Amino acid sequence: MIRVELLKLARRPRSWVSIGLLCGLPVLVAVFVAVTHVVPPPGQGPTLLSAVLSNGSLYPAAALAIVLPIFLPVAVAVVAGDAIAGEAGAGMLRYLLARPVGRTRLLVAKLIALIVYTLTAVVAVAVTAYITGRLLFGSQPVAVTNSGGGITPTIIVAHAATSLSGTALTPADILSRTIGAIAFIGVSMLGVGAIALFLSTVTDSSLGAALGALAALVTSEVLVTLNAAAAVGPYLPTRYWLAWVDFFRQPILWRNIDRGFLVQGVYVVVLLAAAWANFATKDITS
Amino acid sequence: MIVTRALTKRYGRVLAVDRVDLDVREGDRYGFLGPNGSGKTTVVRMLLGLVYATSGEIEVMGKPVPSRVADVLPRIGALIEGPSCYGHLSGRANLALIDASGKGQGLRNRRKRIDEALERVGLAGVDNRAVRKYSLGMRQRLGLAAALLREPRLLVLDEPTNGLDPQGIREIRDLLAELNAAGTTVFLSSHQLAEVEQLCTRVGIVDRGRLVLQEDLDALRAPTGRVVVRTPDADRAAALLDGRVERRDGDRLVVAEADPAQVNARLVEAGLRVSEIGPERRSLEELMLSVTGSGSDRIDSGDRGGAEPGAAERGATRETAGRDGAEP
């Protein structure tokens, strides 16, 4: 069943179009930046973008920062929202279950297809961004500071309030930290996917499920910035979304990264359990 | 093959299926009839484990449903409320996906089985165009092909000839009869009487969630013990058969006599012309109308918004039933 679900995902033009768009946006941004050499000052605009001009190897991380706020969650919510509700809407759910495909089995296969899609999307963005970065920005450091010895790429990591001082990062460092960031973002997106997947078992409208998940995210984003809602802040799904930036600090700031993994993990487990409980006991009338 | 005991399904305050006792025997061609909204589809979905019963028991091929439904579903071919497909894929790709779903028989002979199924439903020459571009009749055939993929022992079909032209309906009917002759039990849910009358050997009629009748079709359509005569000399015939004529409708007489040959002989002996004569049989339509009310798609005035849905309709049914009962 897992194979079948992956096949269905791969045969949908939508899957490829969405991944293409996700990869296209950072390329577009890179072209603009490379042509004009105008970047937002540190602390403004997409995270890390200001550091890119000095080192193209960092562009994958910057690209993820570009797609993370809206593009990526929308794509994941659409695919996850379509999981069960899409089958129901197409009238295929009854035929699949009468085949028979066990309900739990179907849900697990859908979840795995979702994970594969999410990882494919994130990795595709990172890879195209890496290629774009190397081609457009090169890997020669513009500024060399510290006693890294020789030509060590140096970056300045910018963050909203605090600005960390420049530290030397080796290419291997950048690679491992980018992989860490990809994993973190992947898990964050899985959180989004879990919300949409749960809603997908509740409604027969895939659009409704996707929009419901996005509504939850927007609500969370609003509450995160609201001081009055500080009490619930740590539990909001988007609270630690940007914590992956901490992978690019020296040393890595694990506090928020760990919490981010934990919060997303709890959301994923609870929502998937709810999705399973709902789907396994539901009357299929679509 | 299919046995249900006091099968009941309640959606909130609406009783969709009310203590239904189905009995479908192996080898039957069973017609499951009822007006729109009478609960046919809910029963079919419960048989397949899609909808869970509120109470009552279901047994399909000797296994309790829904607890052991996964054991019997591989041997059931189903067409539930119209065919569905992935519109962006071809018919063959759809069948391959469906066949690969769930515990399957594997790739080994998939292509062959798909070809056979398509051949059976008359789509053997179908090309690679997307199902989105199929006509309704083609989709219906494709849905049937999907149901036939695994050589089922039981076919559960909901309106299988919907969207087909008379030629197609005939083909499908012949196909079902052929499969049945080869040992497949056919459970056909429909509101098209002609379809059931021509194919089925046994009928169950459901009305407002209750099984109001379950019988062999032959028994239902057995002669009523009356003879119907059509004659240009109706007046004289009525006089001759005085006392035995139950009803007269123009040149058509209904005579309380079991043997048409005898009636014919008497009329001819008296020099009367007979243009048509035969035993009276009830048509499935008359039967159906006498035991069911109007479907849930009819809403008469007086069914006020606040009332329990169906309450006014239920009153109307009782009235109809009463009228029919008074008239033998």
Using brief descriptors, characterize the structure shown.
heterodimer; A: 286 residues; mainly alpha; 10 helices; 2 strands; globular; B: 328 residues; alpha/beta; Rossmann fold; 3 domains; six-stranded mixed β-sheet; five-stranded antiparallel β-sheet; 12 helices; 24% strand; elongated; disordered C terminus
Molecular structure report:
- The complex is a heterodimer of chains A (286) and B (328).
- Chain A is mainly α and 286 residues long.
- Chain A has one domain (2-280).
- Helix content of chain A is 65%, strand content 1%.
- In chain A, helix 1 packs across helix 7, helix 2 crosses helix 4 (59-67) and helix 7 (103-137) packs antiparallel against helix 8 (171-202).
- With 328 residues, chain B is α/β, with parallel strands linked by helices.
- Chain B folds into 3 domains: 2-220, P-loop containing nucleotide triphosphate hydrolases (Rossmann fold, 3-Layer(aba) Sandwich); 227-279; 298-326.
- Chain B is built from 12 helices and 15 strands.
- In chain B, the strands form 3 sheets. A 6-stranded mixed β-sheet of chain B has the order 7-8-9-4-10-11, sandwiched between helices.
- In chain B, helix 3 (91-100) crosses helix 4.
- The radius of gyration of chain B is 24 Å and the shape is elongated.
- Chain B starts with a strand and ends with a helix.
- The relative contact order of chain B is 0.14.
- Chains A and B meet through helix 1 and helix 6 of A and helix 3 of B.
Structure described in brief:
Chain A is mainly α. Chain A is built from ten helices and two strands. The C terminus of chain B is likely disordered.
Query: Strand order of the main beta sheet of chain A, please?
Result: 1-2
Shape of chain B: elongated
> CATH homologous superfamily of the largest domain in chain B?
P-loop containing nucleotide triphosphate hydrolases
User: Which structural class should the secondary elements of chain A be placed in?
Assistant: mainly alpha
From the alpha-carbon coordinates, what is the Rg of chain A to the nearest angstrom? 20 Å
Most extensive interface, chain pair and sizes:
A-B, 25 and 30 residues
Which regions of chain A are unreliable across 5 or more consecutive residues at pLDDT < 50? 141-165
Largest sheet of chain A: 2 strands, antiparallel
Question: What is the beta-strand fraction of chain B?
Answer: 15-25%
- How does CATH name the architecture of the largest domain in chain B? 3-Layer(aba) Sandwich
Summarize the helix and strand pattern of chain A as letters: HHHHHHHEEHHH
Order of helices and strands of chain B: EEEEHEEHEHHHEHEHEEHEHEEHEHH
Count of helix runs of chain B: 12
